[in-house]
Design brief:
The structure is a single chain. This protein is 33% helix and 17% strand. It has 21 helices and 25 strands. A hairpin with a 4-residue loop joins strand 16 and strand 17. The chain is globular, with a radius of gyration of 30 Å. The strands form six sheets. The chain has a seven-stranded mixed sheet with strand order 10-23-24-25-21-22-11, with helices on one face. A seven-stranded mixed sheet has the order 19-16-17-18-12-15-20, with no helix packed on it. By secondary structure, it is α+β, with helices and mostly antiparallel strands. Helix 4 (33-45) packs across helix 5, helix 5 packs antiparallel against helix 6 and helix 11 crosses helix 12 (168-183). 27% of the residues are buried. This is glutamine--tRNA ligase. Residues 268-461 form the Glutamyl/glutaminyl-tRNA synthetase class Ib catalytic domain. It catalyses: tRNA(Gln) + L-glutamine + ATP = L-glutaminyl-tRNA(Gln) + AMP + diphosphate. One of its GO terms (cellular component) is cytosol.
Length: 701
């Protein structure tokens, strides 16, 4: 595809360099026809064909790769804001993308757009320094105690709440400088494993328990890294390979190999997080980051961020930028960023050596033939061709003398094995596609199966990720959020309750943000909401027939409204069908002499006749119903129909109206939630991160 500028006599590469892209990014972009066409169009729309400064150019590149396709009619407007420097930071641009995606092709409300993107808001270096100083002052005791174990990502988040349009790079630099000024040089003790404090015995639980104490966990479950031996103990790590015609091969590190490794690494743990830059990250990547970066941090080692870029057709700069952004957002900092393509020459030379040793061969089977021979456990007819012949053919493959799809290099393994992973795997295939990182030097590319473990060895990586169960991952998420996420109340499916013995007045009530928060500090509390004549409870917290094991509301029964008063159901109002419950009538006990067993969360009208704050809540759950759907014949039939449930009309306490994107909360009795980037002014969206361990849901509810 020819870009517009080329038809005007100017090559796309020259045009991209003019807007400030570095040479490598510009060259990689030209190799991608779609991005080349988009970026060329954006440059012409922005009227900067004569060039612009690098900051503007980088924003234009983001527009070319990330702009929401449902809002293309508004792209020229956004470009005017960028070129005029009214939108000048990545944070502003991301906010613009979110706003325009929600607007789609509807009329653009300029005032709302500018407010959502921080147009006209100037954040000076002094503003950022002042915000950082305030955060450090508020958290000084914790920072001094935790020193360099302090969660910098959390501090960063606090600053972003105060100054959402601040340059994140400057924020990070100032935080790092402030940490160093406060703590001085990092000491050996800063890298030691923290001593776990003994938890105090919790207070007696109420009848409806929001979070039951989990069963006592083993050391491995509490610290998943405890299962890994130290680098000098790596002789314990071995792999047993079972062949159909030979004895079991037990592969492990010899003392000589281990000593050489320890000399190079200085005895440190080296791990790597190796995503493929062909898509966006998902929850499985978060789990892998926890193991890879977490193990390196826990042992005072190093973790590479390695882009496993062996497929040039699927990889994009957009995904590379996204991955790096998310790794930082998750609080991890790579020791070094590398690419599998950095090692293409070494991988090629090792493949040649495999052929020389008789362990690899050039094959001409089609994909269908390979599949058929695998199913029949048959060797390829070219498996035993002469070594010299395979060497020549592999050289021809490298030099572009064989058509794409006409030859592959396969590793000799065991085609008669009962383990299909032992069948002769493909090491190299032909692809006449320029590589986003390596350019057009290669027309053969290594497979993941071949390259991954070799690059691990070249980078002195000590081990792959051992698995982390979902239950364990969720346990650690709850442990973290229990300490950091303030409590609040949201009702997902509201049922109206009218308190008949109360007038139209309202009462202000406070609640603790955290159960252990000091009672003498005002910052420990939040306004639940005014307690008024009309409150809303969950529909599932009421039923017509009571029972011994049920702690919700029923006719003639009392419950305690959390942080408020006991109420007793006195009447039920039905719809015309005599089945649908429209509202509950109840009386409250202002003296609090009634001591019901059940405790319910609730939200009230802020003033007579005014509905509570309406929010959207997305309930995410496991994608599959079984633990290992891969073992099922019909794995698609195992999809969880409730893996995502969207509730558009939930009610929330008023204090949540100021929540910002990324803020995290515990919705009492419901789970942990975070504010989604789809949120707009007046329309907050919350995503469930994880549920609570809730004994109430296991009872007679």
């Amino acid at each position: 595809m020819v870009g517009k500028s080329e038809s005007d006599g100017e090559k796309p590469l020259d045009l991209f360099l003019k807007i400030g892209l570095d040479e490598r990014t510009a060259t990689n972009t030209v190799a991608n026809n779609k991005v080349t066409a988009n970026l060329t169009a954006v440059i012409h729309e922005a009227a900067v064909t004569d060039g612009c400064d690098r900051t503007v150019g980088n924003l234009l590149y983001s527009v070319a790769t990330k702009f929401p396709t449902n809002a293309l009619v508004h792209r020229p407007t956004l470009l005017k804001y960028i070129v005029s420097s009214k939108i000048k930071t990545p944070a502003q641009l991301e906010a613009a993308f979110s706003f325009l995606s929600a607007t789609a092709s509807d009329d653009l409300k300029i005032d709302d757009f500018e407010a959502a993107c921080g147009v006209g808001v100037e954040v000076s270096l002094e503003d950022i320094e002042r915000a950082v100083d305030e955060i450090f002052e508020e958290n000084k005791a914790v920072i001094v105690e935790q020193r360099y174990r302090t969660n910098v990502g959390e501090l960063f988040g606090y600053v972003r709440k105060k100054q959402p349009w601040a340059d994140p790079k400057i924020v990070k630099q100032i935080i790092d400088t402030k940490l160093y000024a406060l703590l001085g040089e990092r000491t050996a003790a800063d890298n030691e494993k923290p001593v776990k404090k003994k938890k105090e015995k919790p207070a007696k639980a109420e009848a409806i328990v929001e979070e039951t104490a989990p069963a006592k966990l083993s050391e491995e479950e509490i610290n998943p890294f405890s299962i890994f031996p130290s680098p000098e103990q790596n002789f314990k790590v071995h792999t047993e390979i079972y062949f159909s015609d030979r004895p079991v091969l037990r592969a492990c590190n010899s003392k000589e190999i281990l000593d050489k490794h320890l000399k190079v690494t200085g005895g440190k743990v080296f791990t790597r997080f190796p995503p493929e830059p062909n898509g966006y990250l998902h929850i499985g990547h978060a789990k892998a980051m926890f193991v890879d970066f977490g193990l390196a941090k826990e042992r005072g080692g190093c973790c590479y961020l390695r882009y496993d870029d062996t497929n040039p057709e699927a990889e994009k700069k957009e995904y590379i930028d996204h991955i790096e952004e998310i790794v930082g957002w998750m609080g991890w900092e790579p020791f070094k960023i590398t690419y599998t393509s950095d090692y293409f020459q070494e991988l090629y030379e090792l493949a040649v050596e495999l052929i020389r040793r008789g362990h690899a061969y050039v094959d001409h089977q089609t994909p269908d033939e390979i599949k058929e021979y695998r199913e029949k456990k048959m060797n390829s007819p070219w498996r035993d061709r002469p070594i010299e012949e395979s060497l020549k053919l592999f050289d021809d493959m490298k030099n572009g003398m064989i058509e794409e799809g006409k030859a592959t290099l396969r590793m000799k393994q065991d085609m008669q094995s009962d383990n299909f992973n032992m069948y002769d795997l493909i090491a190299y295939r032909i692809k006449f596609t320029p590589h986003p990182h390596a350019g057009d030097k290669w027309c053969i590319y290594p497979s993941y199966d071949y390259a991954h473990c070799i690059v691990d060895s070249l980078e002195n990586v000590i081990r792959d990720s051992n698995d982390t169960s979902l239950d364990r991952l969720e346990y650690h998420i709850r442990e973290e959020l229990n300490k950091t996420a303030p409590r609040t109340m949201v009702v997902l499916n509201p049922l109206k309750v009218v308190i008949t013995n109360m007038d139209s007045s309202v009462m202000d009530l406070d609640a603790k943000k955290w159960p252990e928060a000091p009672a003498d500090e005002p910052s420990s509390f939040y306004k639940v909401c005014p307690f008024s004549k009309v409150v809303y409870i969950e529909q599932s917290d009421f039923r017509m027939k009571d029972s011994k094991d049920y702690y919700g509301l029923a006719p003639g029964k009392s419950v305690l409204l959390r942080y408020a008063f006991p109420i007793k159901c006195t009447e039920v109002i039905f719809g015309d069908d005599k089945e649908t419950i429209l509202e509950i009538r109840a009386e409250y006990d202002p003296s609090k002499k009634t001591k019901p067993k059940g405790v319910l969360h609730w939200v009230a009208e802020a003033s007579p006749g005014v509905n509570p704050l309406k929010v959207e809540v997305r309930l995410f759950d496991k994608l599959f119903l079984s633990e290992n759907p891969a073992e099922l014949d019909d794995w698609l039939g195992d999809l969880n129909p409730n893996s995502k449930v969207v509730i558009t009309d939930a009610y929330a306490v008023p204090s949540l109206q100021n929540a910002a994107v990324g803020d995290r909360f515990q919705f009492e009795r419901l789970g942990y939630f975070a504010v989604d980037k789809d949120s707009l002014p007046g329309k907050l969206v919350f995503n469930r991160t994880v549920t609570l361990r809730d004994s109430y849901s296991k009872g007679g509810k």
